[in-house]
Prior knowledge:
Number of strands: 12
Order of helices and strands: EHEEHEHHHHHHHHHHHHEEEEHHEEEE
Number of helices: 16
Helix content: 40-55%
Strand content: 5-15%
CATH class of the domain at 1-80 and 342-380 and 401-405: Alpha Beta
Strand order of the largest sheet: 1-2-3-8-5-4
Amino acid sequence: RSRFFNPPPPPPERVPFPLQRPFFPSSDLHPFPLQLRDKYGPVFTVLLGSRRVVVLCGHEAVKEALVDHAEEFSGRGGMPTLDRIFHGYGVILANRERWKQLRQFSVATLRNLGMGKRTLEERIAEEAECLVEEIRKARGSPFDPSRPISHAVANVISSVAFGDRFDYQDQMFLSLLDVIQSLFLELSSPWTQLYEMFPGIMRFLPGPHNRILTHVAVLHNFVSERVQRNQKTLDPGCPRDYIDAFLIKMEEEKQNPQSEFHTKNLVLSVVHLFFGGTEMVSATLRYGFLLLMKYPEVQEKVHQEIDGVVGRNRSPAAEDRSRMPYTHAVIHEIQRFSNIIPLGIPHAVIRDTQFRGYTLPKGTDVFCVLGSALQDPGHFSDPERFDPGNFLDENGGFKKNHAFVAFSSGKRVCLGEGLARMELFLFFTTVLQRFTLQSPVDPQEIDLAPKASGFWNIPPEYRVCALPR
C-alpha cells in the first residue's frame, strides 16, 4: 500500500502538452496550478508526462509541508534536466547524508568567511561602489543595466568562492556571465519543460535542450581550474575562500569512507553556489530597478529615507536597514512581486508521509508553489499589484509577513539567504543614494511581463537613465 497514494490527492490532472507558460505563476496570466487549486483545493497531483508529482498551493499548505513537516519534506525532488548533469552531487541537489554533510559545511563556511579579515559586508560594499562607477560611465544616457548588475553580484560570490573579484572588462568573466544568463533562459524554455515531462525520449533527441550540457560544462571547467589553482597555493592555516575550506575538509576526512568531501562534490557545489548566487540576486535587482522606474513615487520615498538616515556623505551600511523600514519593505515587495522562482525547487518526502488526509509514499516529488504563497490573497490584499504597504504597519514600521517565502523555508531554505539579503539592501541603497532612475519611455508603457517564464521568471530587457543626484 505504501507504493500508492492512499487516497490519491486529486485529480491527477495531466499537464497540457506541450507544457506552456500557463502552468507557472505569473503576474499577467491565471496559471494552471492555481486553476487546479481553485478546482481541487490546495493539494493535488499532476502528471508531467508519465511522472506523477504532488503540487501544494497557498501559504498554509506550503508552510504545513516545509515548516510543520520539515523533516518529512526535506528531500530534494527530481529535476531530470539537472539530474542528467549533476547526478545528485553538489550541495543544492544532494540528498540524504550527502546533503546533510554538504549543507552543514556550506552554512558554517559562509558564516566563517563573513568573520574573516574582510567581512562579507565589506566585500559587498566595495562591489556596490564599483557598480556605481560603471553606471556613472553612461553619463545619464539610456543603457542596459543587466550586465553591470550581473557582474557586480557575480563578483560577490566570486570573492566568497574564489577569494577574488574580476574586472568589469574581463572578457573571460563576461563570457561566463553570458553562459549563466543563457543557462537560466534555457531552463525556462518549452524544450526544457518537455524534457522534464519526457526525459526518456528527449535525452536521445537533438534540440536546444541539449545546450544546457554545454553551458554547465563551461562552468564546470572554470571551477575545476580554480580548484587546481587553489590546490597549488593552499595554506591549511589560512583558508582564503570556500574552495580552500573544502580542500582542508577533504584532507581532514580522507580516511573516512563515508565522507562526502571529495573533488566532485567540491566542483559541483561551487557551480551551484556560483550559478544560484549570481542570477537570483541579479534578477531581483534588475526587476527592482524596473519597478522603481514604473513607480517613481515609490522611488522618491526611498530617496527621502536614504537621505534622512544615511545622508550623502557616507555609504550605506547593513546596520542602517533596521532604521529604514520603507526601503526594507520595498525590497521585500520587489522580491514578492518579481517571484523569481515561482515553483521553487522540487522537494521529495523522505519516508511515507501522512499529509492532509493523504498518504504520500516515500520518494514522492512535491512542488511547493512558492509563487502561490507570495500571491496568496489571504495574506496580501491585492497580490497582483506592486505595493510596499504589504510589509508596513499602520505606523510605517516594517511588518513581517509569514507568507513571504522568496527564499523558500524549512530545512531546504536557501543557504545563502543571509548573504542575498545583505546584497540586495547594500546594492539597492548605494545605487539609489547616488542616482535617480528614469525610464526612456513613459512609465505607464513599461511592461513588467517576464522575458521568459518557466521554472524561473526572467526579467524583461530594458534600458535605464541613471541621473546623478
